Amino acid sequence: MLSLAYYKVKNVFRNGNVVRQLEDKALKSLLQADPDKGIEQAIRQYGGLAKAVIVRFLGDSADAEECLADTFAGLWRHIGEFDPERGSLKSYLTVMARNCAVSRLRSLRRHPPVIPPEEAELGQKIDESGNLERRENAALLREALMELEPSDRER
User: Fold this and answer.
1) What integer pLDDT is reported at residue 147 of this predicted model?
2) Phi/psi of residue 20, each to 5°?
3) Can you give the pLDDT at residue 145?
4) In whole angstroms, how far apart are CA 104 and each of 27, 70, 95, 136?
5) Terminal C-alpha separation, the chain
6) What is the pLDDT of residue 5?
7) What angle do CA 47, 11, 39 make, to 5 degrees?
8) HEC states along 75-95?
């Protein structure tokens, strides 16, 4: 097995610190050659971004954590489909995370969470479908705003 030192790296500034990241082709090769190390490196490089995308849709919940795990499992399963010549791994993973979150939202709408009997007896009514719809609309609005130029966002 090749060590991480074998793969091509790039220096990236994050929070004022220099962080070494594998280039997309190198990370793809690592994922194919050593999936455990590859997933670990992918999570280190892009885990925060993927989680931020998912939390926009699902909030900080167990569903978001499960969706994050599904996103990286999907990356591992479909890494052969990723072509570094067509786009960045960052974009590829962001789309995977977004699609996973939207799919989970739709699933939650079709199958609302079951309230345990002990909580149902409290007499409180919970409108989960309204909350989900508001979260999805807010996430879509944030996504649209992020596509605007910074000067246009402030108006």
Assistant:
1) 75
2) -85, 125
3) 74
4) 27, 11, 14, 11
5) 53
6) 46
7) 30
8) HHHHHHHCCCCCCCHHHHHHH
The whole-angstrom separation of Cα 103 and Cα 69 is 14
For the chain, percent of residues with pLDDT exceeding 90: 46
CA distance 20 to 9: 6
Annotate 97-118 with b (16+ C-beta within 10 A) or e (fewer).
bbebbbebbeebeeeeeeeeee
Cβ(143)–Cβ(56) below 8 Å: yes
Distance, in Å, from the CA atom of 18 to the CA atom of 145, rounded to the nearest integer, reads 29
- What pLDDT digit, counting tens, does each position of 22-69 carry? 888 989 999 999 999 999 999 999 999 999 999 999 988 889 999 999
For residue range 96-111, what is the model confidence (pLDDT) as tens digits? 999 999 999 998 888 7
- Alpha-carbon distance of 42 to 48, in angstroms, equals 10
